[in-house]
Amino acid sequence: MAKRKSTKPEGDLPYEVGKWKPPIERRFPKGVSGNPRGRPKGAKNIALQIQDVLTEPVPITVEGRQKKVPAIVAALMVARRKALGGDYKAQDQLLRTARDVALLQLPEDQGAHALTPGAEADLEALLRRYLGEEEAS
C-alpha cells in the first residue's frame, strides 16, 4: 500500500506521513477534542442496561390472575417450577443462585438448628453436592 504524501513540501514535515502519523494540516488543533460532543448525558453503561432489563415488569399468570413482576422474579419462578419438576440443570441453577446471594449456606454451628440426625446428614450431602466439596468443608 502506498503511503500518503502531505501537500506540504517534505522539508516541513518532522516525520514521514503514514499509519497513525497524519499530515500536519489534518491533525486536531491543540486543545480541541476529537470527540467534541462526547458521550451523551444519560447514556447507560452495560450494568445499568442489564439492571433495567431484569427489573422491567413482565406480566405473569398466578392462580388464574395476571399480575406484573420484575423479569428476574419471573425467571426465578420458571427455574423453580422446572427444578421442582425434576430438571437437574434448573435445580443446580437455582441452588447456585441462592448460594451466590448468600441465602443458602452450610450451618456453622451444628446445634443451631432442629433437624433430625438423618435429615441433617441428607441436607449436608445435598449441599456438598451442589455447592462443591471444597466450600462445604
Task: Give a concise summary.
With 137 residues, this protein is mostly helical. The chain is built from 5 helices and 2 strands; from the N terminus they run H-E-E-H-H-H-H. It has a domain at 44-104.
Task: Write a structural description.
The protein is mainly α. It has a domain at 44-104. It has five helices and two strands; from the N terminus they run H-E-E-H-H-H-H. Helix 2 crosses helix 3 (88-100). The longest helix is centred in the last third of the chain and has 15 residues, at 117-131. The relative contact order is 0.06.
- Helical content band: 40-55%
Largest sheet: 2 strands, antiparallel
- What topology, given as strand order, has the largest sheet? 1-2
Spans with pLDDT under 50 lasting ≥5 residues?
A: none
> What is the beta-strand fraction?
5-15%
How do the SSEs run, as a string of H and E?
A: HEEHHHH
Task: Please identify the structural class as seen in this structure.
Answer: mainly alpha
Global morphology:
elongated
The rounded distance between the terminal residues' Cα atoms is: 63 Å
SS field, number of helical segments:
5
User: What's the number of extended β-strand segments?
Assistant: 2
Average pLDDT figure: 78
Report the C-alpha radius of gyration, rounded: 30 Å
